[in-house]
């Protein structure tokens, strides 16, 4: 991707995070990126195209990392694979906190874009976690559970701190962007999974 596109996307991500999608104009994005406003229409067909590109890049990067990890750890026990994939999700959300927050905000509003995101990406997002749990259930490493409920709980654990960072900072006095927080969150999720997935043979 050329430098002009990268500057536009970087500027948009920053402004969307501060002002929200609706509160950010194409002119503001152009000023922040220091480009002619016409270039946004040329490269992205407008503000929604910028948002869609940010979302697509976010999800496709995550899915590629999950696939690479899956290939690298396919030979290890399900419990270890689950720990690795949860760690990847937590770290990815931590490193891309502003885009995570932006996407979750947009998904909270009933719109054509939200429906498209859920159709195109959220089932794959869920699958990245569900596949490992289902594999562990098939081998007897995990007890039989509602996979949808477990994945929803994992996702809630991961997303909430990045969707509401100010609350986490002010009410709980924790810094969601820190490595310490990411490690704590990973351990907390794994403890939840240990209790809820423990097989009868353990």
Automatic annotation (TrEMBL):
Keywords: DNA-binding. Residues 25-44 bind DNA. GO terms for molecular function: DNA-binding transcription factor activity; transcription cis-regulatory region binding. SUPFAM superfamilies: Homeodomain-like (SSF46689), Tetracyclin repressor-like, C-terminal domain (SSF48498). Pfam families: TetR_C_29 (PF17938), TetR_N (PF00440). It comes from the Bacteria. Residues 2-62 form the HTH tetR-type domain. Coiled coil: none annotated. This is TetR/AcrR family transcriptional regulator.
